[in-house]
From TrEMBL:
Highest taxon above the source species: Eukaryota
Annotated protein name in UniProt: L-ascorbate peroxidase
Keywords of this entry: Calcium, Chloroplast, Heme, Hydrogen peroxide, Iron, Metal-binding, Oxidoreductase, Peroxidase, Plastid, Potassium, Transit peptide
Entry annotated with the keyword Oxidoreductase: yes
Location within or outside the cell: Plastid, Chloroplast
The enzyme's E.C. designation: 1.11.1.11
Biased composition range(s): Basic and acidic residues: 258-272
Catalysed reactions, as listed in the record: L-ascorbate + H2O2 = L-dehydroascorbate + 2 H2O
Molecular functions per Gene Ontology: heme binding; L-ascorbate peroxidase activity; metal ion binding; peroxidase activity
Region Disordered: start-end pairs: 252-283
One GO process term, biological-process aspect: hydrogen peroxide catabolic process
């Protein structure tokens, strides 16, 4: 579900290979790699195409993923992928197409319940931004680079291939919408549709065109670093974000689940996730993990249920004296959380982006307009 795996099927060649290699191999494969994946090779395909990846290496990845990297199944699996029919990257996005794409995303959300993974995809495209590098796209950020295999296979991005596969049909339909915009549009729409605040978004992000433009691995945060507060500051300050924004954005974990076969964190299933919706399993931060509200903060504060996840980087927002001010505020006041979250999310979505036109394209009203609750 959240990652909406239920719609992803093995191609006949993958089924054959799975049966040849036996159950042991298929158990080693993370869910993402059992999915049907479009693949195109950077050398043979247009540079705008999106070669997708399966394996993962991460500061917090676990042994099954390491097994996967050495599995003889993997090269064969890649060789048997269908080539994608991805459209050419547009210089920037078209407002009419952006609005239609948004309607398609709403339909996708209704049928697949994939709000969380779409939010995570947008964040991981944008969160590579380095404010100390001026040059685009070397500085990273919301530039669509996560569609390339080289970046998608970064350990922190384990499982996000599923999000990309969900959005690809929409990308194929709207050649006038860039990947960079589509990822941010999908994320903001997912927040709004889950009951969160209206995000003051703008569009017109230009896509990077080649895998060589992808940032190096290691720019996204780890969940269990030795000093979580220092680590969060190091990573988010590099993006130009502050303590309040770190805490507000952490509240996105009100949605979704962590899966041991992806990040290595969380339980395989809990009473909240064992029946889905969608592909069951994983451990959520909140009981109603498809509803955007302030329960992430109240649940961490109360630690009321062992079935709910608290990563070391989540726990620290109530331990560090500066973070705690905001965490307490958001636990007590959902409206304050929504207001700060909406602003922080919009800022995150713009990090590193090159806009065409430079001021961006606003779909509803004025970007940066006063906060309004979406639902
Ligand atoms: C503060 C540092 C952060 C760390 C260390 C972190 C870490 C993680 C980890 C380990 C997972 C589980 C992934 C999996 O196993 O599939 C996850 C999921 C998720 N993260 Fe974060 N995250 C951080 C910040 C953020 C931010 C800023 C956002 C969005 C604004 C976000 C949105 C999400 C969402 C929505 C999921 C659920 C994905 C799903 O259900 O498929 N995270 N995060």
């Amino acid at each position: 579900m959240a990652d909406c795996l239920s719609h992803l099927t093995l191609s006949p060649s993958q089924k054959t290979m799975a049966s040849l290699t036996g159950a042991a191999s298929s158990r080693l494969l993370p869910a993402a790699s059992r999915a049907r994946i479009h693949l195109s090779s950077p050398s043979s395909a247009s540079s705008s195409r999106s070669p997708l990846s399966l394996s993962s290496s991460s500061s917090y990845s676990i042994s099954p993923l390491k097994c996967l990297r050495s599995s003889p199944f993997v090269p064969h699996f890649f060789l048997n992928q269908k080539r994608s029919s991805m459209s050419t990257v547009a210089a920037a996005s078209d407002p009419v197409q952006l609005k239609s794409a948004r309607e398609d995303i709403k339909e996708l959300l209704k049928s697949k319940f994939c709000h969380p993974i779409l939010v995570r995809l947008g964040w991981h495209d944008a969160g590579t931004y380095n404010k100390n590098i001026e040059e685009w796209p070397k500085r990273g950020g919301a530039d669509g680079s996560i569609r390339f295999e080289v970046e998608l296979k970064h350990g922190a991005n384990a499982g996000l291939v599923n999000a990309l596969n969900l959005l690809q049909p929409i990308k194929d339909k709207y050649s006038g919408v860039t990947y960079a915009d589509l990822f941010q549009l999908a994320s903001a729409t997912a927040i709004e549709e889950a009951g969160g605040p209206k995000i003051p978004m703008k569009y017109g992000r230009v896509d990077v065109s080649a895998p060589e433009d992808c940032p190096e691995e290691g720019r996204l945060p780890s969940a269990g670093p030795p000093k979580p507060a220092d680590h969060l500051r190091e990573v988010f300050y590099r993006m130009g974000l502050n303590d309040q924004e770190i805490v507000a954005l952490s509240g996105a974990h009100t949605l979704g689940r962590s899966r041991p076969d992806r990040s290595g964190w969380g339980k395989p299933e809990t009473k909240y996730t064992k029946s889905g919706p969608g592909a069951p399993g994983g451990q959520s931060w909140t009981a109603e993990w498809l509803k955007f509200d302030n329960s992430y903060f109240t649940d961490i504060k109360e630690r009321r249920d062992e079935d709910l996840l608290v990563l070391p980087t989540d726990a620290v927002i109530f331990e560090d004296s500066s973070f705690k001010v905001y965490a307490e505020k958001y636990a007590a006041d959902q409206e304050a959380f929504f207001k700060d979250y909406a602003e922080a999310h919009a800022k995150l979505s713009n990090l590193g982006a090159k806009f065409d036109p430079p001021q961006g394209i606003v779909l509803d009203g004025v970007a940066g307009e006063k906060f309004v609750a979406a639902n």
